[in-house]
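F.,

This is the one I mentioned.
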């Protein structure tokens, strides 16, 4: 019953965005330019909806557990989530996940320490699990190899899977001269066996809107910038089940 209601809610309000960080959100310096990944969907794609609203959903569920005290049904907690958040998307994910697991198991998973979004959504049976997947990088190049500040570097890479992949991530991280952390994380939904290519751009321009009084600002000082790309099953580096680093590749570029 909850699934049917949730489906109607998302059909009507699917364009409503939850105000939370998203796993596919990309920092201004690092952007996905092109990808050969194709997500097959015959309707609403629940998995990215769940992953992208993870932080906010968990916040309201845990808050509801504390405030309500006794929770007997999925309606109790999911109606609380809707009332407090005002988000039909959060209600839909809550209802679908709770309906699949039952209220006791749903609360048990929500209360786990150190949850990560993919494991949580796999536990709710919203994201598919496939632990026999694999992926190996077949090519990796950064062009130009060196350039002055305010240049754009392009990272081209391709990986191949013999068995297909599970729900996972691509993580691109850059080790900077001044120690500012630069990375982007992209959700990968399960893919069939094949070869997949990605193109990432890196804008080596200081951000004029960055306020050094409020946050660290990348200045792009001269020197060598090391780049690491990982393709993973589940969240890269997670200790939870259904998590594995398929492969890692490294390279570098230089600011003159």
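My design for it:
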């Amino acid at each position: 019953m909850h699934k049917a209601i949730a489906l109607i809610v998302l059909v009507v309000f699917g364009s409503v965005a939850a105000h939370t960080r998203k796993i596919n959100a990309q920092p201004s310096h690092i952007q996905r330019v092109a990808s050969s990944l194709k997500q097959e969907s015959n309707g609403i794609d629940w998995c990215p909806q769940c992953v992208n609203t993870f932080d906010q959903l968990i916040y309201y569920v845990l808050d509801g557990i504390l405030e309500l005290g006794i929770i007997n049904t999925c309606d109790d907690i999911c109606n609380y989530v809707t009332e407090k958040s005002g988000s039909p998307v959060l209600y839909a994910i809550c209802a679908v996940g709770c309906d699949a697991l039952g209220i006791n198991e749903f609360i048990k998973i929500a209360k786990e320490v150190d949850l990560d979004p993919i494991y949580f959504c796999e536990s709710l049976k919203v994201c598919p699990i496939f632990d026999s997947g694999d992926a190996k990088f077949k090519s990796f190049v950064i062009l130009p190899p060196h350039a002055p500040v305010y240049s754009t570097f392009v990272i081209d890479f391709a990986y191949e899977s013999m068995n297909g992949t599970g729900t996972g991530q691509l993580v691109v991280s850059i080790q900077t001269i001044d120690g500012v952390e630069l990375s982007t994380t992209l959700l990968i939904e399960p893919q069939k066996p094949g070869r997949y290519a990605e193109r990432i751009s890196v804008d080596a321009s200081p951000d004029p809107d960055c306020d050094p009084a409020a946050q660290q600002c990348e200045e792009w000082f001269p020197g060598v910038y090391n780049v690491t790309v990982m393709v993973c099953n589940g969240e890269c580096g997670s200790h939870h089940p259904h998590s594995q680093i398929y492969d890692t590749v490294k390279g570098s570029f230089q600011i003159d």
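Strands lie at 30-35, 136-143, 146-147, 152-161, 168-175, 181-188, 194-203, 223-233, 244-255.

Talk soon.
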